[in-house]
Amino acid sequence: xxxxxxxxxxxxxxxxxxxxxxxxxxxxxxxxxxxxxxxxxxxxxxxxxxxxxxxxxxxxxxxxxxxxxxxxxxxxxxxxxxxxxxxxxxxxxxxxxxxxxxxxxxxxxxxxxxxxxxxxxxxxxxxxxxxxxxxxxxxxxxxxxxxxxxxxxxxxxxxxxxxxxxxxxxxxxxxxxxxxxxxxxxxxxxxxxxxxxxxxxxxxxxxxxxxxxxxxxxxxxxxxxxxxxxxxxxxxxxxxxxxxxxxxxx
Length: 250
Fold this sequence. Notes:
Blueprint: H1 12-27, H2 35-43, H3 47-52, H4 57-88, H5 93-112, H6 135-147, H7 153-167, H8 170-193, H9 195-205, H10 209-229, H11 231-242
Helix pairs in contact: 1-7, 1-8, 1-10, 2-4, 4-6, 4-7, 4-8, 5-7, 5-10, 7-8, 8-9
């Protein structure tokens, strides 16, 4: 496609991981509970008004859209930076994969409760100031949220950035971070579209937070082990053999 080999069997496993990681990030204990208040704050309304549907739905959808655009901006820029870094050190790609694999396994063990990494409990947030209730304020909050280093987003985002760096291609790294942004951002948009139903569903999901955290831990440990053992290459070959049509994409 335009001379750029973006999609193929080798990239497919990483894209699946990136999309799944984005969804799990949305369901994580440091994101899911703040979705309703964030939406209310960005739209300049209240959670009660959102539940009643008192004409605030359009403002909530607009706020959610600009919030996701802010998230995506940061993720795509980080993806480009990680890919550029990977290209600079392409000769040491195997060593980078080993280091990245070890770090990602440690992240996964953190989520599983096997060990705790104090640094992952630090947060850096940016306030939108008096821009609450405006699209620009929602965009700023999206930027701030993406930059915030939290126990949930930080390790998962670091994992996807490590995979992007392994690609050694700016375009492929950009696509990978795009899939992560879709996995995290699409649930925000769906929450805004199906607002009243989503608020009840989100409240019910909160009691499953420990399960989500363990699932994130298992995903990160699996990704780390695949990077350490070269398993992504084997998985890519398996995908090409099982789905030959993947070889025609790109």
